[in-house]
Design a protein that fits this description.
By secondary structure, this protein is an all-alpha fold. It has one domain. 78% of the residues lie in helices and 0% in strands.
Length: 409
């Protein structure tokens, strides 16, 4: 998704770029809802009594197909690209220490970009969290032996499941009808207040709300650091072992990932979509299972995400060529598209722009997302026909060129 997560330009990485391109589109399907409803646990807001079947299906489709499916793919590819980038830097400069220093510089640039994005455009920025996680998880692993990566993966996996279990047990405590009713009332009030600001407010009121939501979301996102760490390290392992860079040699492995991911992911996410739709229809009477299923969503979502990755990597023939031809260009300029999506959604949906969040229905908001995808699909091929990088990626490259020159001298 980012300049720091883009592997060196090489045709053998076209499928990795295609994966990244599909992920940047998939995450838009989830992100677009927060431009209307803001930062609250009632992520799809409240369905009005006049909602059509298409509005219901829009929520069900997003919850089943996209929610917590594509950010894991981004994190997985971020970890994979860490290995690809540091290897390339090592080849250019001959020392792992130089590769480590330059990678840290890239993380700092990514952090600055995330802060600007989160405070000035959209509060749901993930770049900030990825940069912070990169310093904690990946920095220090440059050029290290495979057993050290495995050891760190085991440690973070234990921490992840310990927190997952703690969150699940905490969710079981909120079972009394009175407590759930009070929580539901407060949540509906908060989400409606956020909707009014984002879809009807002016630039100043939206900006104040956005900065508050950005600080809250970024702080809470640090609790998902173990999940991100596991995904980062799985991505790094997938390159070190050749699973991602040479999928044709590991078809048996990817077949197992594909079918295991579908067998676990499809039933779980169908149930999750049903819970989410019921919550949006009647938010004042949430199911007792909502909190419990949400606690396990990182696992259920990641299983389906793994199946997506395996399916894309296994695609061959005409389908594989089509994926590479159309989605790889999107992936090569993923940072440009990620930031542009936020800008376009803000202008189209929020009150300071066209305000479509106040007048259109959920099905219409999802249509906006697909229209942006189509625009970016065409724009990517047009732009890369005459440029090597996306415009934001080029800005990033210029900002780090002088550091590369210093190392060469």
């Amino acid at each position: 998704m980012t300049a720091s997560s883009t592997p060196p330009h090489n045709s053998r990485y076209a499928r990795i770029d295609a994966l990244r391109g599909i992920a940047v589109f998939g995450i838009l399907l989830v992100n677009i809802w927060s431009f209307i409803w803001g930062f609250e646990s009632l992520r799809y807001g409240v369905l009005p009594a006049t909602a059509s079947i298409f509005d219901v299906l829009a929520i069900a489709f997003t919850a089943f197909f996209a929610e917590q499916k594509f950010y894991p793919i981004f994190a997985f590819l971020f970890g994979a690209s860490f290995v690809l980038i540091t290897r390339s830097l090592k080849q250019n400069f001959g020392r792992w220490s130089d590769a480590e220093r330059l990678y840290r510089r890239r993380l700092k640039w990514l952090l600055a970009c995330g802060i600007v994005h989160g405070t000035a455009i959209w509060f749901g920025d993930i770049l900030t969290v990825y940069a912070i996680a990169g310093f904690f998880v990946l920095a220090g692993l440059t050029g290290e032996r495979l057993h050290k990566v495995r050891t760190r993966l085991r440690i973070w996996t234990i921490v992840f499941f310990a927190l997952l279990l703690a969150n699940f047990l905490l969710g079981m405590q909120i079972t009394s009808p009175a407590a759930m009713q009070e929580l539901a009332i407060n949540t509906v009030a908060a989400v409606e207040a956020g909707r009014v600001v984002y879809t009807e407010g002016n630039l100043l009121s939206i900006g104040i709300q956005r900065i508050g939501d950005y600080l809250s979301l970024t702080t809470q996102s640090l609790f998902i650091l173990p999940h991100i760490a596991v995904l980062f390290l799985c991505g790094a392992m997938s390159v070190r072992l050749g699973w991602l860079t040479q999928p044709a040699r590991h078809t048996k492995f990817w077949r197992r990932v594909q079918w295991t991911g579908f067998l676990i992911g499809i039933p779980f996410n169908l149930a999750w979509a049903a819970v989410v739709v019921a919550e949006a229809i009647d938010p004042l009477h949430p199911s007792n299972y909502t909190f419990l299923m949400y606690a396990w969503l990182p696992v259920g979502g990641s299983c389906l995400a793994a199946a997506y990755v395996a399916t894309i990597l296994l695609a061959g023939g005409a389908i594989g060529r089509w994926l590479d031809n159309w989605f790889a260009p999107v992936g090569k300029m993923a940072l440009t598209h990620y930031l542009t999506q936020s800008l376009l959604c803000s202008i189209l949906i929020q009150g300071f722009g066209f305000g479509l969040g106040a007048t259109w229905t959920p099905a219409g908001w999802l249509a906006i997302a697909f229209a942006i995808m189509l625009l970016q699909l065409v724009f990517s091929r047009w732009w890369l026909a005459s440029h090597k990088q996306g415009p934001i990626e080029r800005m990033y490259r210029r900002s780090t060129d002088h550091a590369l020159e210093k190392l060469r001298t």
